[in-house]
TrEMBL record:
<dbReference type="GO" id="GO:0005506">
    <property type="term" value="F:iron ion binding"/>
</dbReference>
<keyword id="KW-0408">Iron</keyword>
<keyword id="KW-0560">Oxidoreductase</keyword>
<dbReference type="GO" id="GO:0016705">
    <property type="term" value="F:oxidoreductase activity, acting on paired donors, with incorporation or reduction of molecular oxygen"/>
</dbReference>
<dbReference type="InterPro" id="IPR002403">
    <property type="entry name" value="Cyt_P450_E_grp-IV"/>
</dbReference>
<dbReference type="InterPro" id="IPR036396">
    <property type="entry name" value="Cyt_P450_sf"/>
</dbReference>
<dbReference type="GO" id="GO:0020037">
    <property type="term" value="F:heme binding"/>
</dbReference>
<protein>
    <submittedName>
        <fullName>Cytochrome P450 704C1 isoform X2</fullName>
    </submittedName>
</protein>
<dbReference type="Pfam" id="PF00067">
    <property type="entry name" value="p450"/>
</dbReference>
<comment type="similarity">
    <text>Belongs to the cytochrome P450 family.</text>
</comment>
<feature type="binding site" description="axial binding residue">
    <location>
        <position position="425"/>
    </location>
    <ligand>
        <name>heme</name>
    </ligand>
</feature>
<keyword id="KW-0349">Heme</keyword>
<dbReference type="GO" id="GO:0004497">
    <property type="term" value="F:monooxygenase activity"/>
</dbReference>
<keyword id="KW-0479">Metal-binding</keyword>
<dbReference type="InterPro" id="IPR001128">
    <property type="entry name" value="Cyt_P450"/>
</dbReference>
Length: 481
């Protein structure tokens, strides 16, 4: 018997009835403020309800971008709390910096995400967060990690380039998102855990299972935000929660096995500590994309790369990769701008939510209550004309360059792909270094085109932004290499 059918129909009907009543009461009361507070409080306009989010789940970021176009900041009504979503940089700065202590992850976000992410830096507040942040901040700032990660990035991009070369020679299309994700996963596991995952070549079956399980668990965890019955499903171990439990078991088994292996390796190699100072996991244990629809931009990037690497002709990918210097990468301003423009329109985390700890008034003059979820929207913000101008939806790297062609950063409260304030992403420079090395090598040797120009590209709704079904491209050898 299918376990998802075990819940009696009468119970389901009863819960649906109670949820409907709760929605009705919430909406009615939200439209009739208490007389005593009428002159004091103003609340953001209502954009919809949690039900609208559920209906639009597979196009959630489009739906929320449409709302953000109407209202810089708006509310979605749920049975238990207001959910406030903002695209206003002034509000974002207030939430992430000015009144940082009042807007944390909170118990609500922690409860939803802890099964997948545990008590990690992305889910906790207070002392737990500060301790992990302190350790991570130190590790990411060390020259040892920078140099070690650069070696790993170069090694993996050479491996990736050879895979693409084989596909190019046989005139085959391939899923470049899948290859990028595998290359990134290989790099992260080598730098963070000291483990050769080798998912690009498919030699590690456990690594493949882990990657797929994590993606599925991410999508299922995000769905909890719009599924008011998820706790009941979890308690009964039915439906999506039963599937999520299984996916998390695969993730946990893989990661705990790595930790045990690393701990044993450290104990056995106590006399030789040279290797310990490379990967991040060892240190913690000791302590305790280029758009294929813009060929002109692709060519500008390729020209800059060629100029900054002295234009030397070579067909040896490994040799070119090993000689690609940090100094040359630093001079690639147009490449940096193109990558930043990609992140402006396609941020890794499209929505980031906090919980309000006490009643407050945002800079726009509207009130939020204790317990309200307050979220900023990097995906929607990248498309707002009042932030980026009339060409907000256009892919234009030049917006990041000054008159001399040098990269010009924007306020992190306007360009929010890496968060801002005390929680600003520690891996920002790490991420840029990997992206620039990969883009420099691949753009030097190949020209990329979409496998099917007519096929629509959409995302899969999950915690981070993924292309649904991958991004299938065809590569061609770049002439004049």
């Amino acid at each position: 018997m299918d376990s998802s059918c075990c819940c009696p129909a009468s119970v389901a009907v009863a819960f649906l009835f109670l949820a409907t009543i709760a929605f009705a009461v919430r909406i009615i009361t939200s439209k009739i403020p208490e007389r005593l507070e009428k002159k004091k409080r103003r609340h953001h306009p209502i954009g919809g309800t949690m039900l609208n989010q559920l209906i639009n789940f597979n196009r959630l970021h489009h739906y929320m971008t449409e709302l953000a176009t109407k209202y810089k900041t708006y509310r979605l009504i749920s049975p238990f709390r207001n959910e406030v979503y903002t695209s206003d940089p002034a509000n974002v700065e207030y939430i992430l910096k000015t009144n940082f202590e009042n807007y944390g992850k909170g118990l609500y976000n922690y409860t939803i995400l802890k099964d997948l992410l545990g008590d990690g830096i992305f889910t906790v507040d207070g002392d737990k967060w500060r301790e992990q942040r302190k350790i991570s901040s130190f590790e990411f700032s060390t020259r040892v990690l920078r140099d070690f990660s650069s070696v790993i990035f170069r090694r993996n991009v050479a491996k990736l380039a050879n895979i693409i070369r084989e596909a190019t020679n046989s005139n085959q299309t391939f899923d470049i998102q899948d290859l990028f994700m595998k290359a990134t996963l290989d790099s992260i596991f080598r730098v963070a855990f000291g483990v050769e995952l080798d998912s690009m070549c498919g030699s590690n079956e456990e690594g493949k299972k882990f990657s797929n399980a994590f993606d599925d668990a991410s999508a299922m965890s995000l769905r909890r935000y719009v599924d008011i019955f998820w706790k009941i499903k979890k308690a009964l171990n039915i439906g999506t929660e039963a599937k999520l439990k299984e996916k998390i078991r695969v993730v946990d088994d893989f990661v705990y096995k790595l930790i045990r292996s690393k701990t044993e390796q450290m104990h056995e190699s106590s006399d030789d500590c040279s290797w310990k100072k490379e990967d991040i996991l060892s240190r913690f244990l000791q302590v305790t994309e280029t758009d294929s629809k813009h060929p002109d931009i692709q060519e500008k990037v390729a020209r800059e790369i060629k100029e900054e690497t002295n234009g030397r002709k070579t067909t040896d990918i490994a040799e070119y990769t090993s000689e690609l210097s940090e100094e040359a990468l630093e001079k690639m301003h147009y490449l940096h701008a193109a990558l930043t423009e990609t992140l402006r329109l396609y941020p890794a985390v499209p929505v980031d939510a906090k919980i309000c700890s006490s009643d407050d008034i945002l800079p726009d003059g509207f009130s939020v209550k204790k317990g309200d979820m307050v979220a900023f929207q990097p995906y929607a913000m990248g498309r707002m004309k009042f932030i980026w101008g009339d060409d907000a939806k256009e892919f234009r790297p030049e917006r990041w360059l000054d008159v001399n062609g040098c990269f010009r950063p924007e306020s992190p409260f306007k360009f929010t792909a890496f968060q801002a304030g005390p929680r600003i992403c520690l891996g920002k420079e790490f991420a840029y270094r990997q992206m620039k090395i990969f883009a420099a090598v691949l753009s030097r040797f190949f020209v990329f085109k979409l496998g099917d120009e007519r096929k629509a590209v959409n995302y899969r709704t999950m915690i981070n932004l993924h292309i649904d079904g991958g991004l299938h491209v065809r590569a061609f050898h770049r002439l004049g290499c």
